[in-house]
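Async update (no meeting this week)

Hi team, since we skipped the sync, here's where things stand on the single-chain job. The sequence we agreed to prioritize is pasted below, unchanged from the tracker. I ran it this morning and attached the output directly underneath so nobody has to dig for it. Comments welcome in thread, and please keep replies under the output.
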Amino acid sequence: MQRLRTTCCIAGGGPAGVMAGYLLARAGVETLVLEKHADFLRDFRGDTVHPSTLEVIAELGLLEEFLRLPHQEVRLLRGQIGNRLLTIGDFTHLGTRCKFVALMPQWHFLSFLAEQGAGLPAFKLRMRTQVTDVIETEGRASGVRAEGPDGPLEVEADLVIAADGRHSTVRARAHLEVQDMGSPIDVLWLRLSRKPDDSLQTLGYFNHGRVIVTLDRGDYWQCAFVIRKGELQDLQLRGIESLRAQIARIVPKFQDRVAELRSWEDVKLLTVRVDRLRQWWKPGLLCIGDAAHAMSPIGGVGINLAIQDAVAAANLLAVPLHEKRVTPEHLAAVQRRRTFPTHFTQSLQILIHERVINRVLASDESVDPPWQVRLFDRVPALRRIPARVVGVGVRPEHVRAGPGAS
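Output:
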């Protein structure tokens, strides 16, 4: 068995894990990120890079290079409710450098961060290495066990950060208590070709008992087809033809391409969970991102929250990690810092589930926009509120831990 020693071991190479690893290594903390897959090329992951995340990238001095990567820019938040096209959010008034949401395949985002990290002496990334257990010594986490391409691996670390997603192995092995907030929906992810004469708008469509969100990915549309929790089996029994017909009914421009969905193999299920840990940490271990709080896909804010967690963790832990004096109080401070944004966002998502999504899914009739939504469309100044909540969130984090923290 191979044995390694590092200051901080991070389980999971998603947005929270790679960003935390990069920020800590940039501050001079020896950091090892373990990612179970061989690469970052997995489709139907969250692909929205919000203005607050772009602000973090700018603070790192990487924005110009980052924006050279293939991406699309969304400046207005629009939805078609029934037969009415409404604008409900306007990012162009945000007080950030980038006044748009960047739509970028997550593998580009993660590869970019990993490449930047590779230039730092303190940053190490091991692919094809899956964390399987937490090592405990005298009541505190002291490392992890993993399986890598060369066999079993043990990593001793002053701190373990769990960033291994909503089905976190680390939080399960650490026996941290999860509060399930409940979710009435699941999402089917699929892609349809984008034609040159298609509108450039990224839209949400709400009508006839269905919600569909279309994200412009350049040469194709990435589509989220919202269903009631547990409805997939009934849909599959009716056949892929039924799904095609429902998509074409809600988004008529797709009538000429729904046949691209040849079978259910072209459709991926995202089981939506909204949950959070009562306590994100135990001595020697901290959970961030989806491992600490799984978010609904509403607003695409899950990545944003995960990145903000990573920034807060690096800001609060870089110096104590560098000085080998991380205490439970330091870990509790990260949770305190990020509790309000997490609770606020999840509460808002649950409210939207109950007041909007459930209402649409409950009836096959054509729907009318609620008066509150119509008000955002009629009063342009009000559009800044949804843009702020989606694009920046509450209590945005800024990079403080700089190179050579000591």
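Quick observations from my side:
The chain has a mean pLDDT of 93.
Residues 123 and 180 are 34 Å apart (CA to CA).
Reply here if anything looks off.
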